[in-house]
Amino acid sequence: MESFDKLGLIEPILRALRKAQYEKPTPIQADAIPPLLEGRDLMGIAQTGTGKTAAFAIPMLQRFAETDVPPARKSPRALILTPTRELANQVSASIKTYGRYLNIVSTAVYGGVSIIPQARTLARGVDILVATPGRLLDLMNQNMLYLDSLEVFVLDEADRMLDMGFINDIKRIIAALPVKKQSLFFSATMPVAASRLAGSLLKNPAQVKINPLATTAEKVEQKVLFVDRKDKEALLLSLLEDSSIYRALVFTRTKHRANNIAKKLNSNRVNADAIHGNKSQGARMQALRNFSAGKTRVLVATDVASRGIDVRGITHVINFEMPNEPESYVHRIGRTARAGASGEAISFCDGDERSYLCDIERTIKASIPIDEEHPYHSKHAASSRPSGNVPAKRRNFRPRRRQFRSPAGR
Questions:
Q1: Within 10 Å of residue 324's Cβ, how many Cβ atoms?
Q2: Which fold has domain 4-209?
Q3: Per residue in 241-257, pLDDT tens?
Q4: Cα–Cα distance between 389 and 28 in angstroms, integer?
Q5: Is the dihedral of CA 112, 252, 83, 9 positive or negative?
Q6: How far apart are CA 360 and CA 401, in angstroms?
Q7: What CATH number matches the domain at 220-383, 1.10.150.20, 3.40.50.300, 3.30.2310.20, 3.40.47.10?
Q8: Is this structure's pTM higher than 0.70?
Q9: Segment 136-163, tens digit of pLDDT
């Protein structure tokens, strides 16, 4: 597919896409938009960062623009369910971008802020509602929101919502939906629980699978650094002496460690901030704005908070701790090399995390090259790694010759 013009989109949407400098559809957009314009249910599986939001938002906007039905009070025409408030804001912003020349009203609702302004917005009527499960149920339970006028339902990042324990909330929400509706199910991976949920929700869906399940983005250069746990902070500081790492996203498994790492970096004159579930909504949004603007060089995040981080120009993803779920590795490193760019993923692995590394390699069906040249390489951590079948031959890391260019003015 060479351009959006070939997809049968209306001129106001095409103009908005040109304004946003969208030159041509990504594979999932090219494959998903036509059946969605026909009104079909759809299951979309694609790596993070491949353009899923536009794939479901553009047909929805066109549908509502062509029917031109005013939204009912407290009852949206479309509901997009997302796992985090950051992702809700991101999706809502994208919808406004694609629909800038349309008379379509959209908003996002999520916890951590007052429910009253959100209820007032819904009372005036919105076409498209982006919501997190908990706040959506709060609004429904207080009779501030009804779903009886719903025409389109989108379950976004379904695998992560199941990981976060939202299954019961999702089932309650699905039970409240009207029988006649268009249902869309989007996810980067498809664990068994997600597949069952999709089967109960979708009717004769079109299926779009852009990449094999649990594969990593092609342009992400990966490597693993074996290191003793006590040396991880020193290793991180050592890596950040490299000026080519000018926008790095560092992952930890806990909120407490995210705070500690950010504090340690700042004390060593590396501008850093932490983002996780204990932060207020205002603090999280400010941290993202600073990171996106380049005021903060390093953002330290937990897996839950990372969904919705769609920042251009992330040069490096650093796994300070190996994720204990292989799918999380795919999502983490997908924060770089977005929209066709290249990036690097660096994983710190201590002796106790060797089983996590093996699980990741079995899941992605590839071995991750080892970098033994860093100053904190631990032979103990490397040698204590358990044996396991990985499909690709183990090799040492040899970096490609590539330079990251800093944005203008930096």
A1: 14
A2: Rossmann fold (3.40.50)
A3: 999 998 999 999 889 99
A4: 32
A5: positive
A6: 26
A7: 3.40.50.300
A8: no
A9: 999 999 999 999 999 999 999 888 788 7
